Structure prediction request, 636 residues.
Amino acid sequence: MSTIKIRIGKRKVTLHKSSQLVGLKRKGTAEMLNARSIPKSFSDSSFVKSNIYNTLGGFNIVKLRTDGTSLDWKLNEVRSYDTVDVGTHVYYTDESERMLVPTGELYITFYEGVSEEEQNIVLDEYKLNFVRRRNSNCIVAKVTVYSKNPLKVAAEMESYSLVRVVEPDLDAILDDYDFAEPDDDLLDHLWHLKNTGKVADVNWPLKPDADSKVIDAWKRMGNTGSDDVVIAVIDNGFDLSHPDLKDSVYKPWDLWSNSSRIQHGDPRFTHGTPCASVALAASNGKGIVGAAPNAKFMPVSGTSFSLRATEQMFEYCVKNDADIISCSWGTTDPLYSLSAIKEEVIKEAATKGRDGKGCVVLFAVGNESKDYINYYSAHPDVIAVGASTSKDEHADYSNRGGEVTICAPSNGDWPIIAARAWWDEGVSWETGTYRFWRDGKERGEPGKYKHFGGTSSSTPLVAGICALMLSVNPDLTSKQVKEILIKTADKIGSPLEYDTDGHSLKYGHGKVNADKAVKEALRYRDEKVGTSQPAIEAPVKKGRGIFRFTVERQAPEGFGVQIGAFAEYGNVLIQVEELQRKYDRPVIVSINELEGKTVYKVVVGGFDELSEAKTFSKTLKDDGFNIYVRSIEGLA
Prediction:
């Protein structure tokens, strides 16, 4: 059968066998990642016509010498060879030329109430081996030499009375969201950190302040971030010898070798190096500097469409203490939208990582200029990053959609500079030459840098900014980080492009502002300190006073000065009476729950303007109060 209908994610699709390609795994290689091994090339084998692709689902993708026979017949013959452990067909869909390779594993979800004994009966019937249990209703199984093709098993099992959903694990090549069109305007210098309107060594006007305000954030912090924050970059092509990356490497992991040995040197894979450098290139006195140059760098090598690989890459990040996970890859092909398994994997990382605070997960929206975004970035727990230009305009390649969270400076007018892997061969132009610079002018140490852009660049830039936020407030949850980015974004473009909720299909909630985001992260930290340390701990004793008071609702608007939080209501009355008598200002009390206890926040306020509250705060501070200025709306 040359076609078969199976489930991929949320859709059922018809797969067709490739008429030329197969996947082979060599015998004698150590089993890695349960379903995969490190592929060794078959290019020296007489039955292989050409080697097409490595590390796809653990297989080498090759063209066989059929010698006039059918591909099915030849593959069956090759499977019997001493050097071949496993052979599989390669598949395509009607709507895509993207190769699909079954890894041999199946994710089987049973109906509620199906017992383990009944689940094992299903495995026995289809001659599958149990791999592991995801939960009481979902298991991972693997085909054996006695099983049918995993796709046939999946197709048949869907009609089994005990089985709700079965999804074969498939791998496919995902898109790297870098932007390397030779006729695009790229960027020079680190204008994306602070844009003065000029590029130092070219005659190219930019728009002043069309940047991410990273340098302003550093000034506010008084440093360039903490080395306690770990940024995981999941990608391919990491040059760990690069001077801007080598000293910050932390717990590297390669998906295909299941080890710390990161594969390198393949000119097809260079994308991870510039992406990582935008986030965290070291401040070492030469070359470039990333948004969070002190952060630890966790390179996770090996993007994959596979269910199992997706689980493993995110689980590795969570288990090895990644704070932030930056992903500049994905797909906008509707056939490869996220399955429920992948949605759950990303959700678990974003909600259960960092000891329950959640890893901050970012995905690029993609560079196809579509009206919908990369399916990975559309996940509700993800920060979906688009691209703006050095003129504060929408980068026309950046995908648009209702799920775009935020945008950040990248190319589209003039490029930024990023690190270059030592094996990077550059962009092939029609002339046959290779170039790394828009204007042909080498910058920095020869061979170490290049112009870069796309949502591949804007995404790690925001990841670095998230690292600055966690540097000043490590207690922020992933949800709070996303919330702060949204609240502090700068609205660029036409106001008419934003809806009533302040969201634009192009820009998301606006362009990232690192300085405002860090400031808000600090405010969150200070507010938490204020509410977790009541001003008066001891209970009120008899005889402290008799009070007459009236109560009226306060509108959630304006500004005030919070003087503390109290655990005892009697202390609130005493403090309010003193404040009203001394300052003749309205006093607002907000009733809150903190760790199961009632806490009363006391705010002197009623100011229409923030400047008035700031001026009054100096008086309270001089009188010995530990205070901070806040919005009254935030009390609601």
